Amino acid sequence: MRPTFLLLFSFSVCTLQAVEPAARWWKGNLHTHSLWSDGDDYPEMITEWYKARGYHFLALSDHNIIADHERWISVVKSKGGEPAFEKYLTRWGDKWVQTREVEGDKEVRLKMLSEFRVPFEEPGRFLMIQSEEITGKSVHINATNLRERILPYTGNDPETSEGVVKAMQRTINAVMEQRQRTGVPMFPHINHPNFKWAITAEELMQLENERFFEVYNGHPQVHNEGDAKHAGTERVWDIILTERLAQPGKEPIFGLATDDSHNYHQEGRNLSRPGRGWVMVRAPKLAVEDLVAAMEAGDFYASSGVTFKDVRREKDRLSLEIEAAPGVSYKTEFIGTRKGYDPKSEPVLGETGEVLRVTRRYSNDIGVVLAMVDGASATYVLKGDEIYVRARVTSTKLQADPYREGEVERAWTQPLVTGIK
C-alpha cells in the first residue's frame, strides 16, 4: 500500500516574485580589426581566439564599415595572404569557406556578422556586438552596438583644435542621433587620443555626450605614456576629470582598455596583438542593453592583466579586492584632485618658441597620488575635499605579449565622483 502525503498550501501568504540575477563580471574587447578592414585574419578565426580565452563579448570594429553585406577579397593580396587563408580553410572547411576565381585571382567571401556570430554566440556565455571605427583624418571614434554604418566627417576644416573638436562632435552626434531614432542602446568612445598626437585634453573636455575614451590601447604606436612634450593618456584623463567636474552639470569621462588588435599570426612588440587590454563589466545578464547600462553607470574597470574580485564606489570610499596570482605583488595608487586646486596651465612651446597643439601643462595639484597601498585589497576613505578619486593597480607580473619592453599588468577603476560644493 502506497503512503499518503498531505500537502498544505497557504495561498493567502504565498506570493511568487521574479528574482533578478545577481550581477557578475563579464570580460570583453571593444576595439578589434579583421580582414573587413586592416586586420590580417578572418572574423571567425579572431572570434574563436577570444572566446577560447574566456572573453564573454567581442566587438569587431573595422574602419568605416560594418559586416552587413556581401564582400569578396583577394586571397593573395589580403593582409593575411595565403598563409591566413590556408589556416582558415583547414579550420572551417570548404563547406563553410566560399571562394571564386576572378580573372585568374582567387577570391574568398568574408562572412557577415549575421552569419559568423551563429556558431559562437551562446546565452550567458558569449555575445557578439556590432561596431565600427569611424575613421576620419585624425579622429577615430568607435561606435558600439550601432545599427547602421556612419560615415566619417570629411569637411575641409584644417587640422586645428577647432577642426578636431568639430569632427569629433559631429561623429558623436551621429551616433547619438541613431540611438535616439532606433531606440537601441549604443555609445561612442574616443580611440587612442595620442595616436599621431591627434587629440588634446582641452579638445576632449569640450565634447558633449561623450562618456568614454581609451586610457589604455594595446597598439604599439599610440603613445599611452606620452613623451617630453605630450601628456600621457592617464594625465589627460586627470585633466579632463578635473576640468569637467569643476563645471556645473558636467559628467565624468570613463577610461577603457582595448586591444586595437590587427595582427594575429605573429608575435612582437611592434605588432598590434590581441589580448593586451579589455574591460570587465558588472551586469546581471550578458545582454547588450545590460552591458551598456552598466558601463554608462561606470560599473566596470579597465585592465591589461590585473583582475578584481570586487570594486566598490560607495558614498564615502573607494575600495577594491584583487584576484591575486601566486608570487605576484600589487600596488594600488588612489589618484585624484582636491578642491581648491591650482587651475593655472601654460602652453607647451616648440624649439623656436611657437605654441604647439598639444595638451597644456597643468599644475601638479591635478591628478595627485592621494594614497598608496600594497597588497591584494585596498580602500580609500574620502577626506571630504576630493573632487574625484580613481585607483590604478600595478602588478609585478610582466605582460605575456607586451607592446613595449618591461610592460607589467595593470588595472584602472572608474572615478568615484564627489563633486564640488
Question: How many structural domains does the protein architecture include?
Answer: 2
CATH homology superfamily of the largest domain: Metal-dependent hydrolases
**Helical content (DSSP H or I, runs of 4+):** 10-25%
**Class of the largest domain, according to the CATH hierarchy?**
Alpha Beta
Structural class designation: alpha+beta
SSE topology sketch:
Layout: E1 24-29, H1 43-52, E2 57-60, E3 71-74, H2 81-92, E4 99-102, E5 105-110, H3 113-116, E6 127-135, E7 140-144, H4 161-182, E8 187-190, H5 201-204, E9 212-217, H6 233-245, E10 254-258, E11 278-283, H7 288-296, E12 300-303, E13 308-313, E14 317-322, E15 330-338, E16 345-346, E17 361-362, E18 368-374, E19 377-381, E20 386-398, E21 408-413, E22 416-417
